[in-house]
Structure formats: C-alpha cells, structure tokens
Amino acid sequence: MDVTLQDITEDNFEDVMDMELPDHQRDLLASNAYSIAQSRFYPDYIPRAIYSDGAPAGFLLYARDAEGVAGDYAIYRFMVDHARQGQGIGRRAMALVLGELRARPDMRRVTICYHPHNERAKQFYAGSGFVETGIDERGEMVAELPGRPAA
Predict the structure, then answer these.
(1) If I label 61, which of 18, 73, 95, 148 is the partner at 20 to 30 A Cα–Cα?
(2) Is residue 116 part of a domain?
(3) pLDDT in tens, 91-112
C-alpha cells in the first residue's frame, strides 16, 4: 500500500470534504470542510490530503508556530475515512507528516490534542511517540512529541 500526503486543491477538496467518520467518532473532530476553510484564513495552517494507492483516504491539518511559538507545530486534525480505517493508512500517514515536520530546521516540538476518553487516539498517538502532558483549557488531552532543543 502506497500512502502519500498531498496538497488540498480544486481537484480534491470535495473528495476530502465528503469523507466521514463512524458515528462514535463524529463528535471527536471538527469536519474536514471546517478545517479546510480555517486553512484559507489562517496562513500558518497547512491542510494535507491523505492518499492511499492514489485515492483520497483521509485528511490532516497542522499549524506552524503554534500558539505563536516559533518552532512549535500542532496537528489539529487527523482522520482516516470511515471506509478506510483499520488498514494501516493512519499509521503511515502519521509517519509521513512527522517526517515532514522533522525535516523543518526550526522544529522544536509537535503537539496534538484529543478527548481524554478517546482510548484509540491515546494508543495511536502514543505508538507514534507522543507523550501526554496534561489537560488544556478546553478539556482536551495534550500530547507532545519532543523535537530538537531550541537554538
């Protein structure tokens, strides 16, 4: 299986917006349409389509200089379409986005947030090296992937 990350374009944005999560996951993540709209108004938000074997399979959104801190990146959205879950696409896509972020010379750390009761997310992100650091002001668990120390 070939997993790639691609830019959101006029050719693929509708496919990405139409992706769905299973009922039990829908309240855990903002919609892809909302996330794509955010990326058009916040220049530090980078949306990426997840493709598997040439077909759209998921979506992610990350931000550079998260919370106004240079070198901090935050993954704000990460999803695999309901029909494609359980195939290893998410793990490969996470490895790709983390590789993309680690390649940035200013990268100091990466954070991700999720609902504290979402055990699948906790296990998934821990498997990618994220370490929980506590609950934020919105009641979400924050996990951090340390990077390079500040210069």
Answers:
(1) 148
(2) yes
(3) 999 999 999 999 999 999 999 9
- How many structural domains comprise the chain? 1
Q: What is the DSSP string of the chain?
A: --EEEEE--TTTHHHHHT----GGGGGGS--HHHHHHHHHH-TTEEEEEEEETTEEEEEEEEEESGGG-TTEEEEEEEEE-GGGTTSSHHHHHHHHHHHHHHTSTT--EEEEEE-TT-HHHHHHHHHTT-EEEEE-TTS-EEEEEE-SPP-
- Is 142 inside a domain boundary? yes
Does residue 151 lie within any of the structural domains? no
126-143 pLDDT, tens digit each: 999 999 999 999 999 999
